[in-house]
C-alpha cells in the first residue's frame, strides 16, 4: 500500500523535498529542544537519493499548542505509530542525541511487531542506551536549562536571548530533557539491523567508549565513525556525515 505523499499528511513528519518514487526513505530524529527544521538542509542534499522525513515532536513550532512528551518510551510509541504508514519501502533511521534513543526504540518496536521497515540505524552524539545519563538538567531552574543548551551549541543564540522565544521553547525543552535523562534501556535490549555510531572526538557528554558501546545493542553489525568537534560536530561536519548516510543508501 503506498504511503502518504504530502508534507501535511502527518503531524509527526516534515517532507521538505518529497521524492515519492524513491527506493528508500531516510527518517531524521532531532536532538532535545530541536525540531524538524534542523534537518531541512540535510533533506535538500539527500533528496536526489531518498525520500526524507524529519520528525517533528509535540510542543514546538507548528505543534506549540500540544503537550510536550516527557517519557521517551511514550514518544517512541507515538512516533512508531505515525511512521508505520511510511514503511512501504526500506527505512534508514538517523537520530542525533535524544533522537538516537528515539530511533533505537522505534526500530525495536518495528522488530517486536515483525513489521518490515528499518534496515539501518545511525545514532549520533549518543552514549549506548543502557548507560544511564549522569546528569539531571531537567531538574534545573529555567536559566540552568537554557545555559546547558547554550553550552552545547547547536541553538541560535538570538533565540535564547529573546524572552518571548525562550518562554515558548522552555516547556518542550524541559520535557525533552526529562524524557532522555530518565530513560535507560536494559543491556539485553538489542536490534537486528546494522548500527553506525557517529560522534565528535571532543563531545563533553559522550566519550568515544560510550559511543562505541552501541555495539552491544545490535546483532546486525556495527561501525563507529569519529569526527572532529563537540556535541554538535555534525553541523560543521555535515558533508562528511551525509557521505556516511549516502553510503548506506547505496548499500540498500
TrEMBL record:
<comment type="similarity">
    <text>Belongs to the thioesterase family.</text>
</comment>
<feature type="domain" description="Thioesterase">
    <location>
        <begin position="25"/>
        <end position="246"/>
    </location>
</feature>
<keyword id="KW-0378">Hydrolase</keyword>
<dbReference type="Pfam" id="PF00975">
    <property type="entry name" value="Thioesterase"/>
</dbReference>
<dbReference type="InterPro" id="IPR012223">
    <property type="entry name" value="TEII"/>
</dbReference>
<dbReference type="GO" id="GO:0016787">
    <property type="term" value="F:hydrolase activity"/>
</dbReference>
<protein>
    <submittedName>
        <fullName>Alpha/beta fold hydrolase</fullName>
    </submittedName>
</protein>
<dbReference type="InterPro" id="IPR029058">
    <property type="entry name" value="AB_hydrolase_fold"/>
</dbReference>
<dbReference type="InterPro" id="IPR001031">
    <property type="entry name" value="Thioesterase"/>
</dbReference>
